[in-house]
Amino acid sequence: MNDRELRRLISRVRIGRLSRRGFIRRMAAVGMTAPMATQLLAYGGVAMAETNPPYKPTKRGGGGLLKVLWWQGATLLNPHFAVGTKDQDGSRFFYEPLAGWDADGNLVPVLATSIPGREDGTLAPDGKSVTWRLKEGVTWHDGKPFTADDVVFNWQYASDPATAATTNAVYKDVKVEKVDDHTVKVLFDKPTPFWALAFVGAQGMIIPKHLFADYVGDKSRDAPTNLKPVGTGPYKFKDFKPGDMVSGEINANYHMDNRPYFDAFEMKGGGDAVSAARAVLQTGEFDFGWNMQVEDEILLRLEKGGKCKVSISPGGNVEHIQLNTTDPWTEVDGERSSLKTKHPTLSDPTVRQALALLVDKSSVEKFIYGRTGNATANYVNNPERFRSKNTKYEFNIDKANDILEKAGWKKGTDGIRAKDGKKLKYVFQTSINQPRQKTQAIVKQACQKAGIDIEIKAVTASVFFSSDVANPDTYPHFYADLQMYTVTMTQPDPELFMKSFLSDEAASRENKWQGRNITRWRNKEYDDIHRAAQVELDPIKRATMFIKLNDMVVNDQVVIPVVARPAVQAMNTKLVAAMSGWDNNTWDIQNWYKEG
Amino acid sequence: MSRQYLIRRLLLVIPAMLGISVLLYTVLALAPGDPFSELAANPAVPPEVAQALRTKFGLDDPVWIRYWRWLIAMLHGEWGFSFQSRMDVDRLIMQRLPTTLIVIGAAQLLAILVALPVGVLAGTRPYSIFDQIANTLAFVGFSLPTFFTGLLLILVFSIQLDWLPFVYRADIDATGWRFYWEHIKQSIMPVMVLGLFQGASLVRYVRSSVLDVVRLDYVTTARAKGIGERKVISRHVVRNALIPVVTLVALQMPIVFGGAIVTEQIFRVPGIGSLLISAMLANDTPVIMAVTFVFSCLVVLCNLIADVLYAWLDPRIAFR
């Protein structure tokens, strides 16, 4: 798809010939995320759809106690320090961003009066600034008014590297100005098509200036409010035991009418996913259970009780197999998988194509993940109904045999193919996790039939996913031929996501394996396009560039996507709670209620 | 029992604790893993932030420097700072220690309440039907690990019968009788699991200890003097039979704590055991260090109490 075509599509949406949903679906077909697509529309002069999920309660409170279960409890409640979703979800009960992302990738205002757009001039035509109008009359839990100063302060706080905020990346490259008491302007030093990152969604929660002003930088960890949040959210802080319990009670001065519905909430942590599934699905002790990483077979059995349902919300996470482009078995200057080497056999495109043909994604979905993992051909994945119908994946052992034979990889006496004395023997590593070991077995079996020998290796998750420089078994070291894990897409914009294939991001000893390019695939054309996309003035051209990048990675089999992994939550059948794959689990907490 | 003895015992604790701390620290330093691994895997966090955090918490220094720093801080009463929660470790532990002590204490009490009468009765009437049944149950009891009985109880009482909750909540929003009732209801299963496991092995010890004493001459003498059977058992037999049992109760404390870690995880009891597990999963070294240290302190303390009780129960034992 080129930019002319894109422009034509956007104008068709503007005059009403094409529905928003249809546009987003088309974008998804070329590998673009839903939020990215809606942002394109906003730039094209099409207003964001205001999706207001029906909210039935007619008065504030009266809903009793809301009991939710996170099998990994929140360990801290300052959203700028949040390490994982558990902390962000816990903070979201008390703190709020200016806007959140719904399941379709639309922005929904929370502390902002409306979503910036081109029509009212709040979105600069050159893409270099965004103006947010803040709601008036919002107060912090301690009664102080919420103003533009608070918003500006959050930028100062998080962008100071000494604060060591995990949200630093969001704020370090922008500037924030106060226009008046209830208007702020976010300035970018280059045109930014994806403008809704600062103050939006999981990383955009706003903390009060009057309580944190003395704790910027080195002193950040001493702030008493780190553990006793004072926000603008629907619930006021009551008690916090890290890793165990977060509790809160209704905020009677909440800025949205009739909300919240529950009088208090308790967010319990700890235990394991299976027993958490039981506590929600089977005994109904809890109303909501987070991240049911349980085999679908068990979920289906537990669901039969009828007390609860499993809610599946699509997101950008994808379980994929990476192919090493460097040689993991030759040591150069004290490191293996060095950039100075080239993989002896995987560097042959026919071998990579054959491997892609040998991953039986349908079986992996059918027999292992069920509803919790959908076979996919794409690296960038969207809600199911938006998934591309054009891209295809194929499982075909005969075809794999065929192309290998044609390329001169002949079977030896041991049944393993070889060419010029180099055998197709690979070590395939992943973390210890039952579904992953089963997937490994499925791949190994198919490869055997095609004359490729796979040695399976499984590493404890705490080692595999660590950034320990000294440990050779971590995934950034990639001292194996193939490896498999899930990449999480925390930001709904592909720029950062697609950085994982840039040459200068290649993980190596030099950068302590902190580079994001784990496969070490290097391609000048890719780098050039990505670099051009970063400074591209025209957002539509930029979008087509990312589409091109996506195609390059997928068509060259740098990675083989296996299954898209949606977020799986368990909830009481009466509970009405909107989930979104692009934001916190509790992104819409103010609108949660129980029916009947 | 002399004061000198007590002081010597207390002084001996110091090198023991030091040794424990060195051992723990080295093992932890050698173990794989990284407290900021979650940060490193998150594409939204720039590597510089993770690096800044590593430097801030001094993670890039050599092990012995880190140990030395930890020790000095510890002597000042600073327990360290949790990487995960960004709060002081002593606060984390104080939040959770009471729950653990209550659960373990209640379990230990239950164990003694069950084991004493059953063991004494079984010991005074060896090979009777009662003894046989008690023995069999005791064997079953201590052969089943706590994680198994825990799951079994959950399956029966929470899922099949739906009588008891299997998620422990420290903050119960109720007052008066309901408050206590809710607490008792949710504590029944974890306390039973721990207490019965402990009680089962205690029954065996009490029984054999009673069997040993019952045959001694002074018991026969007491009987010959015409003292009633009940009095003979309670005054003469039980008191003497208890001496080895007391040490055993104390020496078994590590097992109880180990069991408590597992049980707390299963029932989501917010004690230091579950804190330890979550800290281990997150590689939160200061917390792991502090919790294991608290555990070893408790074990050492229990041994001390055992020694003191020993002296009280048997004045013949001389302390030099």
Flag low-confidence runs of chain B.
none
Task: Indicate the mean pLDDT of chain B.
Answer: 81
- Largest interface, Cβ cutoff 8 Å: A-B, 65 and 52 residues
Biggest beta sheet summary of chain A: 7 strands, mixed
Give the CATH architecture of the largest domain in chain B: Orthogonal Bundle
What best-fitting shape of chain B do the alpha-carbon axes yield?
Answer: globular
Overall mean confidence score, pLDDT of chain A: 84
Number of helices of chain B: 13
Total domain count of chain B? 2
Largest beta sheet of chain A: what is the strand line-up? Answer: 7-8-9-1-10-21-11
* CATH domain class of the largest domain in chain B: Mainly Alpha
Q: What structural category characterises the helix and strand content of chain A?
A: alpha+beta
β-strand amount of chain A = 15-25%
Radius of gyration of chain A: 25 Å
Low-confidence spans of chain A: 383-389
Q: What is the straight-line distance between the termini of chain B?
A: 9 Å
Report the sheet with the most strands of chain B, covering strand number, pairing sense and barrel closure: none
Describe this structure as you would to a colleague.
The complex is a heterodimer of chains A (596) and B (320). In chain A, helix 2 crosses helix 3, helix 8 runs parallel beside helix 9 and helix 11 runs antiparallel to helix 13. Chain A has helices at residues 3-14, 20-29, 34-43, 85-92, 148-159, 168-171, 209-212, 273-282, 296-303, 349-357, 361-369, 397-406, 434-449, 461-464, 494-497, 524-535, 539-555, and strands at 65-70, 99-101, 107-109, 129-133, 174-180, 183-188, 235-241, 245-250, 264-269, 288-289, 308-313, 318-323, 374-375, 410-411, 417-419, 422-423, 425-431, 453-459, 482-487, 559-564, 567-572, 575-576, 593-594. The radius of gyration of chain A is 25 Å and the shape is globular. Chain A has 596 residues and is of the alpha+beta class. Chain B is mostly helical. Chain B has 2 domains: 3-89, no CATH class; 96-281 and 311-319, MetI-like fold (Orthogonal Bundle), CATH 1.10.3720. Chain B is globular, with a radius of gyration of 24 Å. The model of chain B has no long low-confidence stretch (mean pLDDT 81). Classes of the chains: A alpha+beta (596), B mainly alpha (320). At the A-B interface, helix 6, strand 9 and helix 8 of A face helix 2, helix 3, helix 5, helix 7 and helix 12 of B.
